[in-house]
């Protein structure tokens, strides 16, 4: 049951503000405001968070599954709901569910399942492929990678614009009419699994691609005679990039350089997968990451809160900035002003975590679920 809640005795982080000795007010499913603790209205239930940190619910724009649920291998309403519940327990209150390169038929089936599930935590689907560069395929099967055409895109996108939120493509192999079609239909296009030169990537950024998928991974290198896709992202004024901060996919020193170059244009994702021994993507858990059976690095075993912790402890980014990388910046990219902040009127998605980065409480759409 949704109610009027006042979270007190914590440090509140929202956008560029940090509040001490204040209360976060939640009224039904919306944020009602932040007020001095002594000004909490009498009809609000006061909850003492005992010195913990209070921030907006975390946002992950690229995740494939959790625990034993790899969505592409399950394709059930139940698997989506289990993934949602697992992520809520981790403090991730909004995510875009990702599918790697596969057949277009499987993508269409996934869209139907997603529609039937009518999820509340998942914002939509992110298709990473099949319109990639096989030279930078990573764990994606080469035989399923293909060139995009407007007709192929229409076969997946048309009628599903409310579900398909993002698509990763190799810009050097994707024509401008395809990029235009995706943009016209509200699909956020992001560049990844790409061997693009600096020039090719920059032209793509200037002509409708606003983001880069998992910076450094599966892309042209930063070379001193052609700085490739990473260099194009660094040198562009507006393009954003996601990054996997687990210390495995990207060395922490590379994260430090990336942050210095991109500032607020760099945001966190998990790119997390799940243990799976069937289908195309058979992910094997190796202590703190996943590989394919042949040893190829696949997805991470990160949570968003762990990524924030790594930014603070391993990279040296301040806690407030690390939280913005997991809340404000991804919400900005997907143009959701009602998520990623604790402003009055925003959706009441809230994470409370302690000094050891352990989840203490989670509020989702005004309901305290932990």
From TrEMBL:
This is N-acetylglucosamine-6-phosphate deacetylase. Residues 54-368 form the Amidohydrolase-related domain. InterPro entries: Amidohydro-rel, GlcNAc_6-P_deAcase, Metal-dep_hydrolase_composite, Metal_Hydrolase. The keyword Protein transport does not apply. SUPFAM superfamilies: Composite domain of metallo-dependent hydrolases, Metallo-dependent hydrolases. Keywords: Carbohydrate metabolism, Hydrolase, Metal-binding. It comes from Sphingobacterium daejeonense. The gene is nagA. Gene3D superfamilies: Metal-dependent hydrolases, Urease, subunit C, domain 1. It is an enzyme of class 3 (hydrolase). Belongs to the metallo-dependent hydrolases superfamily. NagA family. Its EC number is 3.5.1.25. GO terms for molecular function: N-acetylglucosamine-6-phosphate deacetylase activity. It comes from the Bacteria.
């Amino acid at each position: 049951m949704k109610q009027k809640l006042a979270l007190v005795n914590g440090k509140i982080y929202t956008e560029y503000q940090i509040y001490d000795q204040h209360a976060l007010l939640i009224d039904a499913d919306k944020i009602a405001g932040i007020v001095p603790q002594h000004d909490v209205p009498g009809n609000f239930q006061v909850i003492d968070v005992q010195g913990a940190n209070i921030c907006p619910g975390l946002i992950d724009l690229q995740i494939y599954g959790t625990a034993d649920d790899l969505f592409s291998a399950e394709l059930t309403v139940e698997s989506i709901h289990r993934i949602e519940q697992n992520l809520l327990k981790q403090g991730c209150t909004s995510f875009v569910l990702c599918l790697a390169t596969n057949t277009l038929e499987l993508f269409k089936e996934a869209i139907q399942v997603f529609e039937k599930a009518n999820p509340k935590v998942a914002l939509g689907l992110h298709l990473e492929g099949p319109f990639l560069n096989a030279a930078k395929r990573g764990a994606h099967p080469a035989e399923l990678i293909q060139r995009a055409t407007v007709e192929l895109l229409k076969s997946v996108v048309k009628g599903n614009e409310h579900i398909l939120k993002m698509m990763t493509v190799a810009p050097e192999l994707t024509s401008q009419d395809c990029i235009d079609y995706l943009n016209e239909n509200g699909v956020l296009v992001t560049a990844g699994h790409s061997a693009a030169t600096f020039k090719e990537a920059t032209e793509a950024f200037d002509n409708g691609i606003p983001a880069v998928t998992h910076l450094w991974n599966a892309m042209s290198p930063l070379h001193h005679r052609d700085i490739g896709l990473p260099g194009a992202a660094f040198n562009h004024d507006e393009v954003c990039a996601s990054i996997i901060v687990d210390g495995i996919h990207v060395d922490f020193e590379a994260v430090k350089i990336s942050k210095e170059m991109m500032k607020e244009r760099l945001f966190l994702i998990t790119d997390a997968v799940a243990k799976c021994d069937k289908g195309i993507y058979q992910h094997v858990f190796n202590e703190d990451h996943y590989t394919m059976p042949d040893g190829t690095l696949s997805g991470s075993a990160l949570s968003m809160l762990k990524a924030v912790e790594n930014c603070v402890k391993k990279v040296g980014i301040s806690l407030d900035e690390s939280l913005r990388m997991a809340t404000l910046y991804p919400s900005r990219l997907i143009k959701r002003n009602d998520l990623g902040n604790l402003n009055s009127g925003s959706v009441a998605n809230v994470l409370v975590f302690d000094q050891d980065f352990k989840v203490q409480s989670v509020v989702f759409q005004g309901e305290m679920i932990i």
